[in-house]
């Protein structure tokens, strides 16, 4: 399949104890349906030197190429997480509904706010905890510098979650045991709750959008396509934080989350603009991690802001002799990398995380986290 749009990069982050590993494994199972054969579990000690190292996987989803970066959760690895976040188009923050929001979330959300990195929250395990969404959002809002906007509403039978409503499209999904769910009508008993939740979402979005505010005053709600565009602008400009719900362990809600990313996540061009990198000029790549392989020597993980770059071309004044696409614990040789892609390049001496590599030199960004 020919991919027309440049690849997008999403970092998966969260503190220890929020079932992020289960989320990642469920995400990879979904990615395999559109991508390649099953990949080994990422982050092996042989590959990265530590089970807490970040891992990179690239996959196709509905005609688009996506690179997901599984960031380490350990506090001592927070700098590595920061570096991956800097080159990502968006971050997925995993929160566990079964545990009270820990103080460990605060540094992560503060960093995302301070760097204006678009991010989404995924409330995990609501089906098991029976937790109040309103109470969870209230406790999480204290940690966030931007409004948290619920994108989905749970449908419950007693304490048990049996489905969700997408508050943008008003599509309702019933939960099944086999991962994703089927379309169902909104129960009449839930209709007033859904209408109130959707109205609250629209009002929070209208606080950031004069066009929508005017429509609401006139009792005219734009169609879902327009709401997706308005939500995408608000996410890109870091004016609000969309909140999705589901269960990582059972795979519920992840497909709808990927759909939300496809419709609303920023593009590489928008991220490049946020980082104040120009669109004009030759190839430009940014290293966000260096590591060493026993037989191949030093390696640089980098994202390509301008491209393409071909094997044998020049970066940082040195000839590229082999480019690799990291895929969990494996790597695949590629001849050409296009704008937006993440690649691994070896034998680029003296390159540090954060360095911007042009054809004939290297420059250091002034605002790279140390």
Report on the structure:
This protein has 370 residues and is of the alpha+beta class. The chain folds into 2 domains: 8-274, 3-Layer(aba) Sandwich (Rossmann fold), CATH 3.40.50; 284-363, Elongation Factor Tu (Ef-tu), domain 3, CATH 2.40.30.10. The protein contains 11 helices and 22 strands. The protein has helices spanning 20-32, 45-48, 78-86, 105-114, 126-129, 133-141, 191-206, 210-217, 224-236, 254-264, 268-274; strands at 8-13, 55-61, 64-70, 90-96, 119-124, 148-150, 152-157, 160-166, 171-174, 182-183, 241-246, 284-293, 297-306, 309-310, 314-315, 318-319, 323-327, 330-334, 336-337, 342-346, 356-358, 362-363. The strands form 5 sheets. Strands 2-3-1-4-5-11-6 form a 7-stranded mixed β-sheet, with helices on both faces. A 7-stranded antiparallel β-sheet has the order 18-17-20-13-12-21-22. A 4-stranded antiparallel β-sheet has the order 7-8-9-10. α7 packs across α8. The longest helix is centred in the middle third of the chain and has 16 residues, at 191-206. The two termini are 40 Å apart.
Mean pLDDT: 84
Specify the number of helices.
11
What is the CATH fold-level name of the largest domain? Answer: Rossmann fold
Number of E-type strands: 22
Reported for the largest beta sheet, the result is: 7 strands, mixed
Strand order of the largest sheet: 2-3-1-4-5-11-6
Please give the domain count: 2
Distance between the termini: 40 Å
- How much is the radius of gyration in Å? 21 Å
